[in-house]
Amino acid sequence: MVPSCYVHIPFCDSICSYCDFVRIQKNEKFFSAWKDTLIKEIQEYKICDLHTLYFGGGTPSLLDVYDFKQIRNCFPSSIDEFTVECNPESLNDEKLKAYEDLGVNRISLGVQSFKNEILQVCNRRHTALQAISVIEKIKKSSIQTFSIDLIFGFPNQTMEDVKNDISMFLSLDIPHLSIYSLQIEENSVFGKKGIKPIDSDLEADMFEYITKTLEAAGYIHYEISSFCKPGHHSRHNLAYWQDQDFYGIGCGASGRLNGIRYDNTSSLKEYCSFGPCPTYISETLEERSMDAIMMALRTRFGLNISSWNARYQLDFKTKYASVLNTYRSYFEYGDDRIYLNDAGLEILNTILVDFMMIE
User: Fold this and answer.
1) Which of 37, 87, 93, 158 is most buried by a 10 A CB count?
2) Model-level pTM?
3) Strand partners, 299
4) Residue 66 near residue 17 (C-beta atoms within 8 A)
5) N- to C-terminal Cα separation, the chain
6) How many angstroms separate the CA atoms of 20 and 244, rounded?
C-alpha cells in the first residue's frame, strides 16, 4: 500500500515574487480540460486506501466548492489526515464549511508575513488583518489542526520585523508553524529582478531567535523548518522525510512509487492534451540511500537504522563510522534511531556534506 498522496493544484490568482513552483494564473480556457485530466489520472491509480492526502499548489482554495468536491470524491472517504493549502483571500465561509463536510482536518495557510509592506513586496493579495481574521475562523471550525507559513529574510526585513511576526504567531495560539528563509530562485520575480539575499549572519541570527523563542513557548522543533505543539506535526510530510512512497498527481506534481521518483509534466497544455507524461528519475541505490539519510536527519524522528540497513543492504554505523565519530557530540540515539540535537541541526548542511563524501 502507498500511504500518502499529493495532488498539485497549479492555479493562482497572482504570482508571488519569491515563487518558483509550477503555478499558472487561473485560466478558464484550460480549467475544464485540466480538471477532467486530473480526475482521470486519479482514477487510473485505483486508490483504495490512504493515510494522508494533501492538496497543494498553487492555491487549492481557489477551487470553487463544486470542483473541490468532485476531485475530493475520487479518493477514499476515510483519510487519517487531509490537508488543504489555502490563501487568506480565497478561503471564505462557504469553502471552510465544505472542507469540514468533506473530511478536511488540516489546513496550511499561506500567511508569509504579518507586515503589510512585506506582503506588498511579495505581491501577496491579502493583508495582515485578513490573515488574522481567517485564522480566527479556522480556530472556530471543527478542523482539528492547522498551520501557517511564514518566511524570513526578505529584502530590507529587520530583526524587529521577525520578532513582530513571531509575537503575532504566538498571540494567535496556532498549533503549527512552517517557517522558511527566503531563497532567491532564478526563475522567480525576485530572481529576474536581481534581488540579493540578506546578510547570512543576520539570517542566522533570525533563525536562532525564531528557534529559541518558539521552543521556550513550548513548540517542538521537529523538522528544520517546522514547529508544532505536541501532537500537531504534519503526518503527510513524514512520507517524504521517512523514505516512503507517495502518489504525486496533477500537472507539476512529483511522486515516488516502488522507490522510483517521478515528475509529471509542468506544461498545462501538455498535461491537458496527453496526460501527466511522467519523467522517471534514474537513481542508483547509493543515491537513494543518501536521500533517505538527508531527509531523515532534517527531523527529530531521525533515521531508523535497522530499516535503512535492510532496505539498502548496508551497515549504517560501519559505513559512516568516521562521520559519526567526527560529529559524535551532535548525534543522539534511541529506539534504533539516530537523530541530530539542536546544535547538530544548526550545522546540518556541513554534516550532510561529510556524509556525501563517503564512498
Assistant:
1) 87
2) 0.94
3) 223
4) no
5) 33
6) 25
* Three-state secondary structure of the chain: CCCEEEEEECEECCCCCCCCCCCEECCHHHHHHHHHHHHHHHHHHCCCCCCEEEEEECCHHHCCHHHHHHHHCCCCCCCCEEEEEECHHHCCHHHHHHHHHCCCCEEEEEEECCCHHHHHHCCCCCCHHHHHHHHHHHHHCCCCEEEEEEEECCCCCCHHHHHHHHHHHHHCCCCEEEEEECCCCCCCHHHHCCCCCCCHHHHHHHHHHHHHHHHHCCCEEEECCEEECCCCCCHHHHHHHCCCCEEEECCCCEEEECCEEEECCCCHHHHHHHCCCCEECCCCHHHHHHHHHHHHCCECCCEEHHHHHHHHCCCHHHHCHHHHHHCHHHEEEECCEEEECHHHHHCHHHHHHHHHHCC
Q: Which amino acid is at 166?
A: I
- Of the candidates 15, 314, 18, the residue with the CA atom closest to the CA atom of residue 186: 18
Please list, in sequence order, all residues whose beta carbon lies within 8 angstroms of the beta carbon of residue 90, skipping any fewer than 6 positions away: 13, 59, 61, 62
Burial of 186 (0-12, 13-18, 19+ CB in 10 A): exposed
Measuring CA to CA, which residue among 178, 173, 165 is closest to residue 139? 173
Place of cell 504525486: 248
The answer to whether the beta carbons of residues 245 and 2 sit under 8 Å apart is yes
Per-residue pLDDT tens digits of the chain, which is 359 residues long: 899 999 999 988 776 666 666 567 666 778 999 999 999 999 999 999 999 999 998 899 999 999 999 999 999 999 999 999 999 999 999 999 999 999 999 999 999 999 999 998 888 889 999 999 999 999 999 998 999 999 999 888 999 999 999 999 999 999 999 999 987 776 766 767 777 778 889 999 999 999 999 999 999 999 999 999 999 999 999 999 999 999 999 999 999 999 999 999 999 999 999 999 999 999 999 999 999 999 999 999 999 999 999 999 999 999 999 999 999 999 999 989 999 998 898 899 999 999 999 98
Whole-angstrom Cα distance, residue 119 to residue 116? 5
d(CA 192, CA 185): 9
